[in-house]
Specification:
The chain is an alpha+beta fold. Helices cover 31% and strands 32% of the residues. It has helices spanning 2-6, 9-22, 45-55, 59-65, 130-147, 153-168, 252-264, and strands at residues 69-74, 77-82, 94-102, 106-115, 118-127, 148-152, 173-175, 184-186, 193-197, 204-210, 213-215, 223-231, 234-243. The protein has a four-stranded antiparallel sheet, covered by helices on one side. Strands 3-4-5 form a three-stranded antiparallel sheet, sandwiched between helices. It is elongated, with a radius of gyration of 28 Å.
Length: 269
Amino acid sequence: MAEHVGGSVEGFANLMNNTAKKIGLNNTNFVTPHGLDDENHYTTAYELALLTNYALKNETFKQIVNTKVATITINNSTRQICNTNELLGYLEGVNGVKTGFTNGAGRCLVTSCTRGKNQIITVVLGCDTKKQRTSDSTKLIEYAFNNYTRVDIESLAKKEFEKWKQINLKRIYINKAKTNNIEVELADIQKKQIPVKNGEEKDITIEINAIYEYEAPIEKGTKIGNLIVKNKSEIIETIDIISSKEVERKNTITYLKYLIKFIRNPIVF
Protein backbone atom coordinates (compact mmCIF):
# COMPACT_ATOMS: atom_id res chain seq x y z
CA MET A 1 0.00 0.00 0.00
CA ALA A 2 2.83 2.40 0.87
CA GLU A 3 4.63 1.71 -2.42
CA HIS A 4 1.39 2.16 -4.36
CA VAL A 5 0.60 5.52 -2.72
CA GLY A 6 4.13 6.92 -2.41
CA GLY A 7 5.86 5.19 -5.32
CA SER A 8 8.34 3.60 -2.89
CA VAL A 9 8.87 3.13 0.84
CA GLU A 10 11.05 6.24 0.88
CA GLY A 11 8.46 8.18 -1.11
CA PHE A 12 5.73 7.21 1.32
CA ALA A 13 7.90 8.16 4.30
CA ASN A 14 8.38 11.58 2.72
CA LEU A 15 4.61 11.98 2.46
CA MET A 16 4.29 11.00 6.12
CA ASN A 17 6.95 13.49 7.19
CA ASN A 18 5.35 16.28 5.14
CA THR A 19 2.05 15.65 6.92
CA ALA A 20 3.84 15.53 10.28
CA LYS A 21 5.29 19.01 9.66
CA LYS A 22 1.91 20.29 8.51
CA ILE A 23 0.27 19.39 11.83
CA GLY A 24 3.15 20.57 14.00
CA LEU A 25 4.97 17.34 14.89
CA ASN A 26 8.43 18.72 15.56
CA ASN A 27 9.86 15.67 17.35
CA THR A 28 8.68 13.01 14.93
CA ASN A 29 10.45 11.37 11.99
CA PHE A 30 9.09 8.54 9.84
CA VAL A 31 11.29 6.07 7.97
CA THR A 32 9.11 2.99 7.59
CA PRO A 33 5.38 2.63 6.79
CA HIS A 34 4.89 -0.22 9.29
CA GLY A 35 6.55 1.33 12.36
CA LEU A 36 9.02 -1.47 13.09
CA ASP A 37 12.11 -0.46 15.01
CA ASP A 38 14.53 1.90 13.29
CA GLU A 39 16.78 4.37 15.12
CA ASN A 40 15.66 7.15 12.76
CA HIS A 41 11.96 6.32 13.12
CA TYR A 42 10.65 8.01 16.26
CA THR A 43 7.96 10.17 17.88
CA THR A 44 6.69 11.18 21.34
CA ALA A 45 3.57 10.42 23.36
CA TYR A 46 2.32 14.01 22.94
CA GLU A 47 2.84 14.02 19.20
CA LEU A 48 1.12 10.65 18.85
CA ALA A 49 -1.87 12.31 20.50
CA LEU A 50 -1.72 15.19 18.00
CA LEU A 51 -1.43 12.73 15.13
CA THR A 52 -4.38 10.72 16.44
CA ASN A 53 -6.51 13.84 16.73
CA TYR A 54 -5.70 14.62 13.09
CA ALA A 55 -6.40 11.06 11.93
CA LEU A 56 -9.78 10.90 13.69
CA LYS A 57 -11.04 13.69 11.42
CA ASN A 58 -11.04 11.05 8.66
CA GLU A 59 -14.44 9.34 8.95
CA THR A 60 -13.23 6.06 7.41
CA PHE A 61 -10.33 5.81 9.85
CA LYS A 62 -12.64 6.78 12.72
CA GLN A 63 -15.06 3.98 11.82
CA ILE A 64 -12.36 1.33 11.41
CA VAL A 65 -10.66 1.96 14.77
CA ASN A 66 -14.07 1.84 16.51
CA THR A 67 -14.92 -1.57 15.04
CA LYS A 68 -14.52 -4.46 17.49
CA VAL A 69 -15.11 -7.37 15.10
CA ALA A 70 -15.37 -7.56 11.29
CA THR A 71 -15.97 -10.35 8.80
CA ILE A 72 -13.91 -10.27 5.62
CA THR A 73 -13.74 -12.43 2.50
CA ILE A 74 -10.53 -13.00 0.56
CA ASN A 75 -10.42 -15.36 -2.44
CA ASN A 76 -13.84 -16.79 -1.48
CA SER A 77 -12.53 -17.56 2.01
CA THR A 78 -14.44 -15.89 4.87
CA ARG A 79 -12.88 -15.16 8.22
CA GLN A 80 -13.53 -13.05 11.27
CA ILE A 81 -10.96 -10.53 12.48
CA CYS A 82 -10.92 -8.92 15.93
CA ASN A 83 -9.59 -5.57 17.09
CA THR A 84 -6.64 -5.97 19.47
CA ASN A 85 -7.62 -2.87 21.49
CA GLU A 86 -8.55 -4.43 24.82
CA LEU A 87 -10.39 -1.29 26.01
CA LEU A 88 -12.76 -1.17 23.02
CA GLY A 89 -16.16 -2.41 24.14
CA TYR A 90 -14.88 -2.74 27.71
CA LEU A 91 -14.43 0.79 29.09
CA GLU A 92 -17.23 3.35 28.78
CA GLY A 93 -16.80 5.71 25.85
CA VAL A 94 -13.70 4.12 24.27
CA ASN A 95 -13.89 4.41 20.47
CA GLY A 96 -10.34 3.63 19.32
CA VAL A 97 -7.55 3.78 18.47
CA LYS A 98 -4.41 1.62 18.19
CA THR A 99 -2.34 -0.98 19.97
CA GLY A 100 1.31 -1.54 19.21
CA PHE A 101 4.35 -3.60 20.12
CA THR A 102 7.98 -3.79 19.08
CA ASN A 103 10.99 -4.86 21.12
CA GLY A 104 12.19 -1.26 21.18
CA ALA A 105 8.85 0.42 21.97
CA GLY A 106 7.34 -2.15 24.32
CA ARG A 107 3.59 -2.47 24.73
CA CYS A 108 1.84 0.71 23.54
CA LEU A 109 -1.75 1.90 23.42
CA VAL A 110 -3.32 5.06 21.99
CA THR A 111 -6.90 5.45 23.20
CA SER A 112 -9.73 7.78 22.22
CA CYS A 113 -12.60 8.06 24.70
CA THR A 114 -15.77 10.16 24.44
CA ARG A 115 -18.24 10.79 27.23
CA GLY A 116 -20.96 13.37 26.66
CA LYS A 117 -19.43 16.33 24.85
CA ASN A 118 -15.91 15.56 26.09
CA GLN A 119 -13.32 13.58 24.14
CA ILE A 120 -9.82 12.76 25.34
CA ILE A 121 -6.86 10.96 23.80
CA THR A 122 -4.41 9.09 26.02
CA VAL A 123 -1.06 7.60 25.00
CA VAL A 124 0.78 4.92 26.95
CA LEU A 125 4.21 3.77 25.73
CA GLY A 126 6.89 1.36 26.85
CA CYS A 127 4.80 -0.98 29.03
CA ASP A 128 6.09 -4.44 29.83
CA THR A 129 2.72 -6.21 29.54
CA LYS A 130 -0.74 -5.77 28.00
CA LYS A 131 -2.17 -5.71 31.52
CA GLN A 132 0.04 -2.78 32.46
CA ARG A 133 -0.84 -0.71 29.39
CA THR A 134 -4.55 -1.43 29.96
CA SER A 135 -4.34 -0.43 33.62
CA ASP A 136 -2.34 2.76 32.96
CA SER A 137 -4.64 3.82 30.12
CA THR A 138 -7.72 3.26 32.27
CA LYS A 139 -6.24 5.33 35.11
CA LEU A 140 -5.41 8.21 32.75
CA ILE A 141 -8.89 8.20 31.22
CA GLU A 142 -10.72 8.14 34.55
CA TYR A 143 -8.43 10.81 36.01
CA ALA A 144 -9.10 13.15 33.09
CA PHE A 145 -12.88 12.79 33.21
CA ASN A 146 -13.02 13.04 37.01
CA ASN A 147 -10.73 16.05 37.38
CA TYR A 148 -11.31 18.30 34.39
CA THR A 149 -14.23 20.34 33.12
CA ARG A 150 -14.87 22.14 29.83
CA VAL A 151 -14.93 25.97 29.68
CA ASP A 152 -16.77 27.64 26.80
CA ILE A 153 -14.17 30.22 25.74
CA GLU A 154 -16.26 31.43 22.80
CA SER A 155 -19.25 32.38 24.99
CA LEU A 156 -17.02 34.10 27.56
CA ALA A 157 -15.17 36.07 24.88
CA LYS A 158 -18.35 37.22 23.14
CA LYS A 159 -19.97 38.25 26.43
CA GLU A 160 -16.98 40.38 27.48
CA PHE A 161 -16.69 41.81 23.97
CA GLU A 162 -20.31 43.01 24.04
CA LYS A 163 -19.70 44.68 27.42
CA TRP A 164 -16.61 46.38 26.04
CA LYS A 165 -18.47 47.64 22.97
CA GLN A 166 -21.21 49.25 25.03
CA ILE A 167 -18.67 51.25 27.03
CA ASN A 168 -15.89 51.94 24.52
CA LEU A 169 -17.20 51.93 20.95
CA LYS A 170 -18.30 55.58 21.02
CA ARG A 171 -14.87 56.57 22.35
CA ILE A 172 -13.23 55.64 19.06
CA TYR A 173 -12.54 58.79 17.04
CA ILE A 174 -12.00 58.65 13.27
CA ASN A 175 -10.54 61.81 11.78
CA LYS A 176 -11.90 62.96 8.39
CA ALA A 177 -14.58 60.26 8.34
CA LYS A 178 -18.01 60.73 6.75
CA THR A 179 -19.42 59.37 9.99
CA ASN A 180 -17.60 58.71 13.23
CA ASN A 181 -19.52 55.49 13.79
CA ILE A 182 -17.50 52.30 13.44
CA GLU A 183 -18.83 48.75 13.62
CA VAL A 184 -16.55 46.04 14.95
CA GLU A 185 -16.60 42.29 15.45
CA LEU A 186 -14.41 39.47 16.72
CA ALA A 187 -12.36 37.48 14.22
CA ASP A 188 -12.63 33.69 14.23
CA ILE A 189 -12.04 32.03 17.59
CA GLN A 190 -9.76 29.00 17.22
CA LYS A 191 -10.03 27.48 20.71
CA LYS A 192 -13.76 27.62 21.29
CA GLN A 193 -13.57 25.41 24.38
CA ILE A 194 -10.73 24.32 26.67
CA PRO A 195 -10.42 21.84 29.54
CA VAL A 196 -9.41 23.14 32.95
CA LYS A 197 -9.06 21.47 36.33
CA ASN A 198 -12.20 21.44 38.43
CA GLY A 199 -12.40 24.63 40.49
CA GLU A 200 -9.99 26.58 38.27
CA GLU A 201 -12.65 28.05 35.98
CA LYS A 202 -12.28 31.32 37.91
CA ASP A 203 -8.68 31.59 36.69
CA ILE A 204 -9.87 32.26 33.13
CA THR A 205 -9.63 36.02 32.50
CA ILE A 206 -10.20 38.23 29.47
CA GLU A 207 -8.25 41.37 28.55
CA ILE A 208 -9.26 43.73 25.72
CA ASN A 209 -6.89 46.20 24.05
CA ALA A 210 -7.75 48.68 21.30
CA ILE A 211 -6.56 51.82 19.49
CA TYR A 212 -9.00 54.71 19.90
CA GLU A 213 -7.86 57.20 17.24
CA TYR A 214 -7.79 56.63 13.46
CA GLU A 215 -7.85 58.50 10.20
CA ALA A 216 -10.33 57.61 7.50
CA PRO A 217 -10.72 55.63 5.38
CA ILE A 218 -10.84 52.37 7.34
CA GLU A 219 -11.24 49.24 5.25
CA LYS A 220 -13.50 46.39 6.26
CA GLY A 221 -11.47 43.81 8.21
CA THR A 222 -8.98 46.34 9.61
CA LYS A 223 -7.59 45.25 12.97
CA ILE A 224 -8.35 47.79 15.69
CA GLY A 225 -7.42 45.73 18.73
CA ASN A 226 -7.47 42.29 20.28
CA LEU A 227 -9.11 40.20 22.96
CA ILE A 228 -6.75 38.04 25.03
CA VAL A 229 -7.97 34.99 26.92
CA LYS A 230 -5.70 33.86 29.77
CA ASN A 231 -5.60 30.95 32.16
CA LYS A 232 -3.69 32.50 35.06
CA SER A 233 -0.61 33.91 33.27
CA GLU A 234 -0.82 31.59 30.24
CA ILE A 235 -2.28 33.08 27.05
CA ILE A 236 -4.89 30.66 25.73
CA GLU A 237 -6.16 32.62 22.75
CA THR A 238 -5.61 36.00 21.12
CA ILE A 239 -8.57 37.11 18.99
CA ASP A 240 -8.41 40.13 16.69
CA ILE A 241 -11.06 42.83 16.90
CA ILE A 242 -11.77 43.99 13.35
CA SER A 243 -13.98 46.54 11.60
CA SER A 244 -17.03 44.82 10.15
CA LYS A 245 -17.80 47.65 7.70
CA GLU A 246 -15.81 50.22 5.74
CA VAL A 247 -15.58 53.73 7.15
CA GLU A 248 -15.38 56.18 4.25
CA ARG A 249 -13.32 59.36 4.16
CA LYS A 250 -14.97 62.74 3.73
CA ASN A 251 -14.83 64.04 0.17
CA THR A 252 -15.43 67.49 -1.36
CA ILE A 253 -19.19 66.95 -1.56
CA THR A 254 -19.33 65.97 2.09
CA TYR A 255 -17.44 69.12 3.12
CA LEU A 256 -19.79 71.27 0.99
CA LYS A 257 -22.80 69.72 2.71
CA TYR A 258 -21.29 70.57 6.11
CA LEU A 259 -20.57 74.13 4.93
CA ILE A 260 -24.14 74.65 3.70
CA LYS A 261 -25.51 73.23 6.94
CA PHE A 262 -23.24 75.58 8.92
CA ILE A 263 -24.32 78.63 6.88
CA ARG A 264 -27.98 77.79 7.44
CA ASN A 265 -27.45 77.08 11.11
CA PRO A 266 -24.44 79.14 12.27
CA ILE A 267 -23.09 78.68 15.73
CA VAL A 268 -23.55 81.87 17.76
CA PHE A 269 -21.17 82.59 20.65
